[in-house]
């Protein structure tokens, strides 16, 4: 089971891709098949089970789009 | 009745304290220095804020911040310093912020001189800042009136949420006259500032924003229309003037402040000699007292606008007269103050030309 | 059981930020908002927005806000703090606003030791107006008004605000931070929080200079812009605490 989980507030995402660059497990990718109301492509989590809940993606997100959950007791 | 001998600038400072001024921000400039000098001592003693800013620009923006935070606030300066404050005044108007600005006018343009002048009429009534905005302005003509109008200005500013300017010249700022300081000014009911002032919000309320930016042109036009509505209300309710000897006058002099005093001396002499001369003395420069010109006596044949400038208020006099009567002008510039005889000579010349 | 370890700060409103994609203004906004939230002072905070890209920041910070004329944020903040000394006051200014047109107001506020916090966002360019040269534009950096690169002969050296302000006796806490990676974001937050803590302890003027990006006007991707901060900007604008009147005594 994954240590962490993230949720996107997709409506506010501007697809700057910084989250994808700072994810230490490289599980965030650009999804060119979807766009939001603003016309930006969305970000997809490829291998959710690899998320460690480190919140690097959220910390580097300029638009506060990402909420990060972590299993109680698990450490990054 | 107790009368105190007060210098004009001191009367301003004393009246500010009596008018409930919480904070003063200013920058030295002649001929208004007695105002900050006086306040630097007494504001501190009364636990209020006095701060000498690094410039007139900083001072007016400190006024903006303090006013936006709900304080009763004042600044004072003189002509070139008021020019520097114009941007801030436009912002204050745009953000619906009250404050009192005292302008002890001196000669211009540029650095000009330090002697009395009324050449700021345009910058007071038209403004040097950008956008459609208006500043209420009072032009008292003696120290008693000055003392009373500074107090009144704080109330009127808060009532309309708009800057109010006190427009005097260096002569009124520097001269001394006995003032009855026991006179009580009728207070207005001031709307609660908590609805708009940034005082730190309570989560049950909406947070407050002091702002003059509206990027959407429709929003900005609506904002302008709300301001215009306010200005119309002020024009309707706040025009102030006094008239003297109008009933039978052939020549009506229009003059304010120091020039009105000189005109009254001139009129006294002229009337002794049988010349029928009267005076309209605007007290508010904006809103201009158009009402004073509505029912002129049938005897009125000539209007003489007299100013310590090259002729600025004459524009408003002509708007008020609207072509009904010929409008003549007399003015001195650069800090030169005329003798009453100079005005008398002009009046005689006009009457003899007919 | 899972718990939330990171979420949008209550110090920010629901409004979508007006900044371009990947602009680090958004990260700096978060840090300020998180600090105010964590210190429990949102309800007594009055922020001052400046002119430039952050002109609309009054829509984003979830506290009482005033919008100031260009360069005058520190004068406005002085007026607020002097009349409401119990409130927490901060300005949020860019390099054009603070280091060019507003340098006098900022220096004098620091010199008086005004008890408020300045967040100075240095991205070496005028972003809002379309990428013109700023007082902090690097030598050789091309902008729309320095198309051949900034030259020392014409425009002098870029102004180093933190170093300059560290010479002012009554400036209590001056630090330059960056947000180009996670470690630096964490450190930037620490410094911003310390600045606000100093204010709460009546320790006087604090200024945190945050190196920031302008991907659009620099002509880079957001990530490349972060790299440029690390490789170019930090060389000229070294990070660190430049002044701490209370730590070294």
Question: Key terms for this structure?
Answer:
heterotrimer, A: 76 residues, alpha+beta, Alpha-Beta Plaits, two-stranded antiparallel ribbon, 32% strand, B: 354 residues, alpha/beta, Rossmann fold, 2 domains, seven-stranded mixed β-sheet, five-stranded mixed β-sheet, 11 helices, 15 strands, 20% strand
Question: Could you outline the blueprint of secondary structure elements for this entry?
Answer:
The complex is a heterotrimer of chains A (76), B (354) and C (249).
Chain A: E1 4-8, H1 18-22, E2 28-35, E3 41-45, H2 56-60, E4 66-71
Chain B: E1 3-7, H1 8-18, E2 23-26, H2 34-45, E3 49-52, H3 56-68, E4 73-77, H4 79-94, E5 99-105, H5 121-125, E6 136-138, H6 143-160, E7 163-169, H7 170-174, E8 176-180, E9 209-210, H8 217-237, E10 241-244, E11 251-254, H9 257-272, E12 277-282, E13 284-286, E14 302-307, H10 314-321, E15 327-331, H11 340-353
Parallel strand pairs in B: 2-3, 2-4, 4-5, 5-7, 6-7, 11-12, 11-14, 14-15
Antiparallel strand pairs in B: 1-8, 6-13, 10-12
Chain C: E1 2-6, H1 25-38, E2 45-49, E3 64-67, H2 73-83, E4 88-94, H3 95-101, H4 103-112, E5 117-122, H5 152-155, H6 161-165, E6 171-178, H7 182-200, E7 205-211, H8 215-218, H9 222-236, E8 240-244
Parallel strand pairs in C: 2-3, 2-4, 4-5, 5-7, 6-7
Antiparallel strand pairs in C: 6-8
Helix pairs in contact in C: 1-7, 3-4
Question: What can you tell me about this protein's structure?
Answer:
The complex is a heterotrimer of chains A (76), B (354) and C (249). Chain A has one domain: Alpha-Beta Plaits (2-Layer Sandwich), CATH 3.30.70.20. Chain A has 2 helices and 4 strands. Chain A has a two-stranded antiparallel ribbon with strand order 1-4. Chain A has a two-stranded antiparallel sheet with strand order 2-3. Chain A starts with a strand and ends in a 5-residue tail after the last strand. With 354 residues, chain B is an alpha/beta fold. Chain B has 2 domains: 211 residues, Thiamin diphosphate (ThDP)-binding fold, Pyr/PP domains (Rossmann fold, 3-Layer(aba) Sandwich); 113 residues, Rossmann fold, CATH 3.40.50. Chain B has 11 helices and 15 strands. In chain B, helix 1 packs parallel to helix 2 and helix 3 runs parallel beside helix 4. Chain B starts with a strand and ends with a helix. Chain C is an alpha/beta fold and 249 residues long. Chains in contact: A-C, B-C. Strand 4 of chain A pairs antiparallel with strand 1 of chain C, so a sheet runs across the interface.
């Amino acid at each position: 089971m994954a240590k962490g989980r993230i949720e996107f507030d997709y409506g506010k995402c501007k697809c700057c891709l910084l989250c994808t660059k700072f994810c230490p497990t490289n599980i965030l990718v650009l999804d060119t098949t979807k766009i939001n109301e603003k016309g930006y492509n969305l970000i997809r989590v490829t291998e959710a089970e690899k998320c460690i809940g480190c919140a690097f993606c959220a910390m580097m997100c300029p638009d506060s789009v990402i909420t990060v959950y972590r299993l109680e007791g698990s450490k990054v | 009745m107790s009368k105190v001998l007060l210098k004009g600038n001191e009367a301003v400072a004393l009246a500010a304290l009596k008018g409930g001024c919480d904070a003063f921000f200013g920058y030295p400039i002649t001929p208004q220095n007695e105002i900050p000098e006086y306040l630097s001592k007494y504001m501190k003693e009364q636990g209020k804020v006095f701060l000498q800013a690094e410039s007139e620009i900083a001072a007016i923006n400190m006024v903006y911040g303090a006013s936006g935070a709900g304080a009763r606030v004042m600044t004072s300066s003189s002509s070139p310093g008021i020019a520097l404050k114009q941007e801030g005044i436009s912002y204050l108007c745009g953000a619906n912020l009250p404050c009192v600005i005292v302008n002890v006018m001196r000669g211009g343009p540029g650095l000009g001189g330090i002697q009395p002048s009324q050449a700021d009429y345009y910058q007071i009534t038209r403004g040097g800042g950008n956008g459609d905005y208006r500043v209420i302005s009072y032009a008292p003509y003696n120290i008693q009136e000055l003392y009373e109008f500074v107090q009144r200005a704080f109330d009127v500013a808060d009532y309309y949420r708009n800057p109010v300017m006190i427009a005097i010249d260096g002569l009124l700022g520097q001269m001394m006259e006995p003032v009855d300081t026991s006179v009580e000014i009728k207070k207005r009911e001031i709307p609660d500032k908590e609805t708009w002032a940034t005082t730190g919000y309570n989560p049950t309320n909406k947070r407050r924003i002091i702002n003059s930016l509206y990027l959407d042109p429709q929003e900005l036009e609506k904002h302008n229309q709300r301001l215009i509505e306010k200005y119309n209300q002020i024009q309707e309710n706040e025009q102030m003037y006094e008239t003297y000897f109008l009933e039978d006058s052939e020549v009506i002099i229009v003059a304010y402040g120091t020039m009105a005093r000189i005109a009254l001396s001139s009129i006294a002499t002229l009337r002794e000699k049988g010349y029928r001369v009267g005076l309209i003395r605007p007290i508010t420069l904006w809103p201009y007292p158009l009402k004073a010109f509505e029912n002129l006596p049938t005897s009125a044949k000539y209007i003489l606008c007299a100013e310590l400038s090259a002729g600025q208020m004459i524009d408003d006099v002509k708007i008020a007269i609207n072509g009904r009567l010929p409008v003549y002008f007399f003015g001195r510039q650069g800090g030169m103050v005329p003798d009453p005889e100079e005005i008398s000579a002009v009046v005689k010349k006009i009457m003899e030309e007919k | 059981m899972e718990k939330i370890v990171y979420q949008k700060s209550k110090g920010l409103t629901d409004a979508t930020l007006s900044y371009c994609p990947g602009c680090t203004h958004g990260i700096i906004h978060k840090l300020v908002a998180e600090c105010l939230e964590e210190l429990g002072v949102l309800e007594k905070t009055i922020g001052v927005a400046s002119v430039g890209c952050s002109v609309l920041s009054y829509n984003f910070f979830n506290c009482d806000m005033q919008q100031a004329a260009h360069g005058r944020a520190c004068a406005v903040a002085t007026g607020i703090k002097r009349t409401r000394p119990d409130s927490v006051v901060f300005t949020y200014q860019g390099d054009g606003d603070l280091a060019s047109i507003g340098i006098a107001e900022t220096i004098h506020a620091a010199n008086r030791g005004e008890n408020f916090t300045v967040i100075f966002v240095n991205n070496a360019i005028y972003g809002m107006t379309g990428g013109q040269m700023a007082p902090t534009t690097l030598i050789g950096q091309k902008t729309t008004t320095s198309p051949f690169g900034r030259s020392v002969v014409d425009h002098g050296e870029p102004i180093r605000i933190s170093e300059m302000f560290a010479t002012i006796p009554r400036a209590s806490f001056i630090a330059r931070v960056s947000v180009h990676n996670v470690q630096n974001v964490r450190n930037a937050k620490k410094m911003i929080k310390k600045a606000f803590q100093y204010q709460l302890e009546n320790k006087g003027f604090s200024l945190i200079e945050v190196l920031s990006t302008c991907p659009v006007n620099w002509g880079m991707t957001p990530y490349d812009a972060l790299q440029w901060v690390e490789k170019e900007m930090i060389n000229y604008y070294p990070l660190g605490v430049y002044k701490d009147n209370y730590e070294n005594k």
